[in-house]
Amino acid sequence: MKITEQSSNYDGLDLMSTGELLTNMNREDKAVPLAVEQCIPQIEKLVDGIVERIKRGGRLFYLGAGTSGRLGILDASEIPPTYGAPFDLVIGLIAGGDKAIRRAVEAAEDSFEGGWNDMQPYNIDTKDVVVGIAASGTTPYVIGAVREAKKRGILTACVTCNPDSPVSKEVDIPIEAIVGPEFVTGSTRMKSGTAQKLILNMISTSTMIRLGHVKGNKMIDMRLTNAKLVDRGSRMIMEETGITDYELAKRMLLLHRSVRNAVEAYVVV
Length: 269
Hints:
The chain has 269 residues and is of the alpha/beta class.
């Protein structure tokens, strides 16, 4: 039996108090970062491959079904506002299409051809990278997509929570975070989902840093989508340039539309 489907280490959940439920869930969650730590060598290999390909004009594709697909879309959607990257640089696809983000689409994940077909409008090629996300490691939508991509010379990876799963056998770089049975048996939105979220954060954040979207520890290309970010950007400009006038820094930011551009313009002047 797959580890993700094994019976919970706890029974009688319906008889526990709220405090007992929360304490036991938290105890289980503590295993997640330790499992992710074991994956760092594989994550490093993947990030290096992504950076090299993006520098040549490639893109990163995430594919998944259900919770796994939603996590990929979440990570992809946060890259443009956070790092000022193009909206088509990191692309998340979910079995069943966008409507499956909010509501499950019956049997969408059961097609081996579905994932690869969903990538076709993007004219995917060997400069790109495909990462299949599947807690179980058995999702046909994901397996079929990475299998076809690898066959065509595209770098492939997976993020899964079962060892030696079918999807791991189909990719160049398998990332397996073995977090153990879920608190609620089979509910992979819990520990497995948390592990996947951590790993996707590591992949995309490290990639954006390596591509130059962070200076020191600051997001110098973030999009100015709200007042909080304008304020943060203004203070970053003050810190970077030595300007002491907040209003001047804010005007520079709004004029040049990014911390990077404002700082570069100030240096030139």
